[in-house]
Amino acid sequence: LSSFGQAARPTVAGFFADNEFRSSLKMTRSTQRQAHHRLQVNAVQKAEYIWMDGHEGMKGIHFNEMRSKTKVIQNDIPPGSLDFPDWSFDGSSTGQAEGRFSDCILKPVFTCPDPIRGDPHVFVLCEVLNPDGTPHETNTRHLIKSVLSQDILDEDTLFGFEQEYTMFNKAGKVYGWPESGFPHPQGPFYCGVGLEAVYGRSLVEAHLDACIKAGLKISGINAEVMPGQWEFQIGPAGPLEVGDHVMIARWLLHRLGEDFGITVTFEPKPMEGDWNGAGAHTNYSTKSMRKDGGMKAIEAAIEKLSKRHGEHIQQYGLGNERRLTGKHETANINTFKSGVADRGASIRIPLPVSLAGKGYLEDRRPAANVDPYVVARMLIETTLKN
Ligand code: ADP
Ligand code: MN
Ligand code: MN
Ligand code: MN
Ligand code: MN
Predict the structure, then answer these.
(1) Which of 128, 184, 293, 313 is buried most, with the most CB atoms less than 10 Å from its CB?
(2) Which ligand is nearest the CA of 284, by number?
(3) Which positions fall inside the GS beta-grasp domain (predicted)?
């Protein structure tokens, strides 16, 4: 956890947040030390049950936000196990049920260590079910399972999800932006360094450490083109796994933001004008694309994607039309365009992939608030199912 050894940033919010986070880590370490003793008596474990809600008008296909609550479990269940009990919640308070018959069921589907509370505490990611046990309409995860037939499993599909997000302060300004007016025009911020170039790095570092401690397949972070905007990458991972890890990573960003006084949003175009929007480029490959001569399979996939552009766009995030303007490294929402190393394309073939003649493609269309389970399912359906 090297980043916590660094000096606190001299902003008020950053200063307190860093100290607060450091002392919470200390508690975690002593909790770990005590865990041994407790195991011999009666180990108490906090399981944070996490699920996607049903925000009004979003109905699962566009955008989901996170909810969670804690279950105290009297005997440890190891992270990774799915022996956690089903639970329920009041769906009328999350946009997932009517008031009179409002219980929804939480069915554990993925668990990992809780890096904030520390060992033996865990996160329990859940699918939401109706009272009769059928999948809730906001449950997009279960739909992936129905497309994973043996021929699809044999293609061993992999996804790399580039999650962009924007930080806001409590007053509703982009984090680090001046009280009045605007920062410098875009240019020095992407992958920048220095107090004037990047805002909010202490949260970004804490989030990276937390994701690593949770065992998520996080593969990198970078500051984005608009100041106060950042990205983390999850992958390469399978279609269910990438969504599960993205969901936990999103929850962790919101949760750590509480301690840092920072609100994180996945809104696709948080600032109108000459400011980049926030996307979720999805890198995708099949076994056929990754083997020698895989470029043929990549081109065939792009051809199929060109024919279902409208269907994909419809499900690629709420408000994405404000982001996909044809400017700011996007293709216009009404145009399907592919190209090598072309950041103004809908689908980009990365230069190293073009040079090697094999690898993966990048779908640049999804908005930051897209449902990762939906993107993964649609890429599989369009490129591998007739
Ligand atoms: P960009 O240059 O577009 O910013 P990034 O480095 O942010 O690219 O993200 C690239 C993503 O592609 C990473 O998440 C990485 O894990 C993923 N990736 C790499 N190889 C593959 C592959 N064969 N299939 C799917 N995803 C891949
Ligand atoms: Mn109550
Ligand atoms: Mn990237
Ligand atoms: Mn990016
Ligand atoms: Mn990208």
Answers:
(1) 128
(2) 1
(3) 45-133
- Residue 152 scores a pLDDT above 50: yes
Q: What is the pLDDT of residue 30?
A: 54
Q: Taking 50 as the threshold, does the pLDDT of residue 343 lie above it?
A: yes
What CA–CA distances, in Å, run from 224 to 89, 118, 266, 335?
37, 30, 13, 25
CB-based contact 54:94 (threshold 8 Å): yes
Residue 35 CA to ligand 3 center (angstroms) comes to: 39
Contact 252, 214 (CB under 8 A): yes
Q: What's the pTM value of the predicted model, to 2 decimals? A: 0.89
List pocket residues of ligand 1, CB cut-off 6 Å.
158-160, 162, 219-220, 233, 235-236, 281, 283-285, 290, 359-360, 362
CA distance 110 to 31: 24
ipTM confidence = 0.98
Residue owning the nearest CA to atom 7 of ligand 1: 162
311 secondary structure, DSSP code: H
Please tell me which residue, 286 or 318, carries the higher pLDDT value: 286
